[in-house]
Every structure is written in structure tokens, then in C-alpha cells.
């Protein structure tokens, strides 16, 4: 799927921004006219034009707020949030770039203004975690115990973005929903400077502890969904945290080792990859040629707090479900996008390794759902996801 851009990464990130339109996160014309102003493959141009659009919509939201126009304010704050998030996306090559914190801060602030005006309850929460806290949003329809979906993102998402990625759909179907950020994500990496960790059960278990202490949560019907890199993180957590009623890997990911990525792209002698200096130069050359590789390495070094490409490769070595996947006990849904340009083949590897009750769900180009994490078809994805989850939760209650 190509939209406006020939560059795959730019096209995909535009599709991602557009995908939130059904849940109030985008207006199609705003996104397209912004994209047409952007210079292909230029990170600064991307930032400048999305920031320009975000500022315009944010200004309208502020005017709505002053005039007491609460619904218009909510709608404009939600879209401004998404556009600021999109603007900030490619800025991670320099963690000291002041634009990153300023733009991300505006994205979060706009979202928090929006949730003050929602038709349901949204509570900003701080989940105790290893002497600090994990930030989250607890969305609920009322105070009664209901099935609850926990959602975390992956390599680059924010907790606020997860409202569009699953929380809104959960509420529509009678679920409470907690979205949260862990190490390497959102505010946890930007403000607390805590990088990713492979043993994600150490992250999810405190979240489960927190949620089971809430009277609004049915303790028997607590599910976990991880998105993108979360397709590794959530199964990793479920392998050791057995109080979960279900696990969703969207899309499924068996391993996320940057060294393996280098091997796939390398066309020279295999022994050359044993030379640290050679690997550094090789990856740098790929970054010069590929927007996707450049972004992945820059964001990886930022979120894993890696001092070099070699350090990033070393830090991601433990990210595999080899010998772990079979420890999962709860029903698990593994999703695959037919044309996923990030994790091709990985969902099937995860599915085959599972010994628990399991479901494999393929999303195809015929359904317009072939892109990574089904961007471009989130309504369809959520329909199929919750049809599966409803069945699992019904069995739990029997």
C-alpha cells in the first residue's frame, strides 16, 4: 500500500496517522494535505509540516475551550495530539533535540485536555514499579466489575496513542481498558530515562497486581494485548504471569534481535559480521540508503539507551521467545498482517511454538488489512479481535 509517498516508511506512518480517523484521531483531508507538503524521505520536512498542522488544530481546540464548546474542543485536541505525535516520530536520532520533548509534551497535553471531555470515565494512573511508576490511563464505562483489556504498545508508540489502538473499541464493546507505558516507551523513556527490558513479565506483573486491587475489574477476565514489538513483549509476560485470561500478540513476534536484521540484509561474507567495526560501517551504509533502517537504528539506540550499533545488537540479543513460548498457559491470539514489512514470518514462528490454546488470525490485502498491525483497517481488526475475546471471556465465566 502506498499513500502519497513512494518511501515505504513515510507512506506507512501516514497510513498510521490516517487510521485513527474512525476514533476521532484524524481528519483525512488534514492528513493528505499535510503529506503533500512534505519532501520525500526528509525527516525535518516531516516534522515541520506535521507540527504546522498540529499547531493549527491545537489553536482551534484552545479557542473552543475558551468558548465552552466542549465537543469541538475534544475533537480538535484528539487530532492535535495525533499530529504532534506524528511530527515527533523521526526526531530520535538526537535525544537532546529540544523539539522532541516539546512536541511530545504538546501531544500528551492535548490528549489530556481531550479526555477531560469524554463521555466515559478516564483516570490518569501511576502504577507502582521498582521504586518509581508506570503511567497509564484507566478507561471505564462505570464502576461495576467488567472484563478488562490491558494494552501496551511496542517500539515507538505512546500510551496516549493506544486510545485509538484499542481502548475506544474496548469501551464500545463493554470492556474497561487500561493502557500503559513500560520501559523504553512514551514518558518512561523520555522523562524517566528507563530503557526497554526483555523480561517484560517484570513490567506486566505489577500492572496486574494494580488492576486486581481495583473493584472495577473482574479478576477472572483480565486480558493483555501488545502491539508491534508488543507482539513479543506480551507473550513474554504471559509466559510467567498466569493470572491473565487471554493474551493477544498484534502482530506476533518470536524474536527481535537487531543482529538478525543485519544478517538478513548482508550480502557479503558471513565472517565479516564478526568484525564490530565492519558491522558498524555496514549498518551506517544501510541507514544512508534506507529511511526505514535509519529510523529503526536511531529509535533503537534511543529506546534501548545504546551507545553504539554494536551495543544495540548486544542489548537486543535476549529478545527471543525460544524456550519461553511454551510456558504460556492462557488462550493466545497471534495476528499476522499479510504484507507486514517489519515482521514477515514471525507470527507463524510464535504460533508454532505455542502449546496453549491458540488461534492464528491472518489479515489479508483483500480485507485492506495487510499492513503492519492492520493499519488502514483498524475497525475490521477490532471487530475480529473482540469477537475472539468475547468467546474466550464467555468460557472463563462458565
Automatic annotation (TrEMBL):
Signal peptide: none annotated. SUPFAM superfamilies: alpha/beta-Hydrolases (SSF53474). GO terms for molecular function: hydrolase activity. Transmembrane segments: none annotated. InterPro entries: AB_hydrolase_fold, FrsA-like, FrsA_esterase. It comes from the Bacteria. Keywords: Hydrolase. This is Alpha/beta hydrolase. It comes from Brevibacillus choshinensis. The lineage of its organism: Bacteria, Bacillati, Bacillota, Bacilli, Bacillales.
Amino acid at each position: 500500500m502506498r499513500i502519497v509517498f513512494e518511501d515505504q516508511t513515510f507512506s506507512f506512518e501516514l497510513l498510521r496517522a490516517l487510521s485513527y480517523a474512525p476514533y476521532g484521531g484524524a481528519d483525512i483531508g488534514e492528513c493528505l494535505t499535510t503529506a503533500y507538503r512534505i519532501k520525500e524521505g526528509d525527516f525535518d520536512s516531516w516534522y515541520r509540516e506535521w507540527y504546522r498542522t498540529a499547531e493549527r488544530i491545537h489553536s482551534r481546540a484552545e479557542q473552543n475551550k475558551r468558548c465552552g464548546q466542549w465537543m469541538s474542543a475534544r475533537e480538535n485536541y484528539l487530532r492535535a495530539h495525533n499530529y504532534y505525535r506524528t511530527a515527533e516520530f523521526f526526531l530520535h536520532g538526537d535525544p537532546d533535540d529540544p523539539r522532541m520533548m516539546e512536541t511530545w509534551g504538546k501531544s500528551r497535553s492535548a490528549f489530556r485536555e481531550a479526555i477531560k471531555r469524554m463521555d466515559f470515565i478516564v483516570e490518569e494512573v501511576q502504577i507502582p514499579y521498582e521504586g518509581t511508576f508506570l503511567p497509564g490511563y484507566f478507561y471505564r464505562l462505570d464502576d461495576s466489575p467488567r472484563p478488562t483489556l490491558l494494552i501496551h504498545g511496542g517500539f515507538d508508540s505512546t500510551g496516549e496513542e493506544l486510545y485509538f489502538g484499542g481502548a475506544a473499541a474496548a469501551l464500545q464493546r463493554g470492556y474497561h481498558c487500561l493502557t500503559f507505558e513500560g520501559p523504553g516507551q512514551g514518558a518512561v523513556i523520555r522523562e524517566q530515562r528507563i530503557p526497554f527490558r526483555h523480561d517484560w513479565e517484570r513490567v506486566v506483573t505489577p500492572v496486574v497486581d494494580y488492576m486486581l486491587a481495583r473493584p472495577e475489574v473482574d479478576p477472572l477476565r483480565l486480558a493483555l494485548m501488545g502491539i508491534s514489538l508488543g507482539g513479543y513483549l506480551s507473550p513474554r509476560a504471559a509466559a510467567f504471569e498466569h493470572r491473565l485470561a487471554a493474551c493477544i500478540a498484534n502482530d506476533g513476534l518470536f524474536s527481535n534481535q537487531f543482529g538478525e536484521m543485519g544478517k538478513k540484509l548482508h550480502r557479503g561474507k558471513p565472517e565479516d559480521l564478526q568484525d564490530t567495526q565492519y558491522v558498524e560501517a555496514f549498518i551506517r551504509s544501510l541507514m544512508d540508503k534506507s529511511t526505514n533502517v535509519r529510523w529503526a537504528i536511531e529509535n533503537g539506540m534511543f529506546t534501548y539507551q545504546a551507545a553504539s550499533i554494536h551495543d544495540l545488537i548486544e542489548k537486543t540479543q535476549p529478545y527471543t521467545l525460544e524456550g519461553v513460548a511454551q510456558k504460556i498457559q492462557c488462550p493466545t491470539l497471534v495476528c499476522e498482517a499479510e504484507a507486514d514489512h517489519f515482521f514477515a514470518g514471525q507470527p507463524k514462528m510464535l504460533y508454532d511454538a505455542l502449546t496453549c490454546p491458540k488461534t492464528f488470525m491472518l489479515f489479508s490485502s483483500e480485507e485492506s488489512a495487510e499492513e503492519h498491525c492492520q493499519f488502514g483497517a483498524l475497525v475490521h481488526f477490532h471487530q475480529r479481535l473482540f469477537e475472539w475475546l468475547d468467546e474466550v471471556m464467555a468460557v472463563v465465566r462458565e
